[in-house]
Design goal:
alpha+beta; 3-stranded antiparallel β-sheet; 9 helices; disordered C terminus
Amino acid sequence: RFVLQRVNPIFAPGVNADIAAVTAHLRARGIVAPRLLPATPAALVPGAALPAGAPLWVEHDGPWRLMTWLPGVSLERFAAPPQANAAGQLLGRFHRALADYTAPFPHARPFVHDTPRHLANLRAALEQHREHPDHAAVAPLAADILALAADLPDLTGLPPRVVHGDPKANNILFEPDGGPALALIDLDTVGRMPLPLELGDAFRSWSNPAGEDAAAAQFAVPVFRGAVRGYARAVRDWITPAEVAGIVPGTLPIYVELAARFCADALNESYFGWDPARFPPSGPRCHRLRQ
């Protein structure tokens, strides 16, 4: 059994080399990770510039790759603290296993958690779309987001760690029988950043029992507590006091960043995974798309 995955075209083909190196490092330290299958001459499609033995990466209506299959299940949301606790333990082991990974990430996704960039995009959207039908409704919300951003904690002095980069709930595989967390998947986003930003992204996802696509997000403190306890169990003699102090404040930049992105989307009308059946269009571009 294998996994054939279509990869988002924002990633360059070379990201496979990063993933192959990281997963080999993880497996050498006892962390479950998929293995990218090597190409053979017979596997290459006409015109594909891949040498034999390279990770299989083909272009056909977008990039694809083939990997070994891991026998786990993913969850769209964590409904109880034990799930978050298990996920926290896995994420801690993942971070520790990569603590001595020193290779660069030449194909890392740019602008990950670049909060100033997203705030600048929001300001630009407010200025450029003054005639938008929803500008009057969006502008007060944008003002609240920008005001909150002015009080964000400064995490720039913390050391960069090798992290997953997108540790949301459904990027974690659990044992099929409801046992412990097995593996982290979708490793295109692995790179370096301050640890509280990684944890903030994880915990805001795990602590929302409503799920990623719910119209109204929640924050369940018991689930958050379970996640922190699980993570602490795996890293208590590795994480620094400054990083511990940044765990709770580290969730705030993630919320502000996401709010800024989605608020700008409302004016730019550039939506990721937009569902017109659930969210009727209102602006000029959406009216054109609907037509």
